[in-house]
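Protein data:
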Amino acid sequence: MRRVLVVEDEQHLADGLRFNLEAEGYQVELVDTGEAALELLAAETPSFDVVVLDVMLPGKDGFKVMSEMRRAGQFIPTLMLTARGRPEDVLEGFAAGADDYLTKPFDLAILIARIGGLLRRREWLRASVDSAPGNAAAKAEAKDSFTFGDKSVDFDLLKLRVRQETFPLTLMEANVLRYLIQHEGKPVSRKKMLEEVWGLHEDTDTRAIDNFIVRLRRYIEDDASRPRHLLTVRGVGYRFVASPQEAS
C-alpha cells in the first residue's frame, strides 16, 4: 500500500484529504507542523511514497521544510499546496525541491491525479532502452541516461554521477538538465525554459532559472566559476556543451 504524508494545519482540510486518499487505497499519516513532518521523515522506516506539503504552516513554512528535506537527502516526491498562486511562489517551491505545486482551492480529483502522477513520473521519464546514434538530443530522448565525458545523468533514478561521486537530483533539476541536453549546442532563453519546463507563461522573474543553473554547475563543473558544460549566453540564457574540446 502506498504511504502518503500530509502536512497540513487546517484540520478540516487534513481530515478531508485523509478520508479521500484512504478511499483511493493510500495509507495516510497526518501532521500539522513542519517540525513534526521533518522528525517523522527522519525516523520513519520504511519511508513515505509521497508527501503533500502545505506552504503556510506554523513555525517552519513549507518552503523551509522542503529545503531541509532535500538537504537531508530525502528525495520523496512532494506536492506543495498553497493559497498563493503567483508564479514567483510556484518557482520558489520548485527551487526548494518540490516536484509539483497545487494552488488552493483545488479540485480533489486534481490532487489525487497529481499524486498518482508523481508515483508514475519516473516511469514516464523512461525512454527506449535502445540507444540511437546522432546528436545529444536524440540520445537523451532514446534512453533514460546520458553520458558526457566522465559524467552521466540517469533521468530514471534522478542521479548524476561525476567520476566516483553520485549526486541525487530533484525532478526539476533533472528536467532542466534534460531540456538543456535536448538542445545541446543551442542557446536556450530563460523565458523559453520557464514555458517549456515549468509551464509558466506569465511575466515571471527568470532569476529562478539562474539558481537551478548554479546548483547544476556545482555538480557538473570542475570549476563552477569557469563552466565548460553549462555556459551562459549573455542577454539570452544558457547553452549546454557535451564535449567542450570539440566545441572549441
The chain is about 45% helix and 20% strand. The longest strand covers residues 3-7. Confidence is low (pLDDT under 50) at residues 125-134, 138-142. The two ends are 53 Å apart (CA to CA).
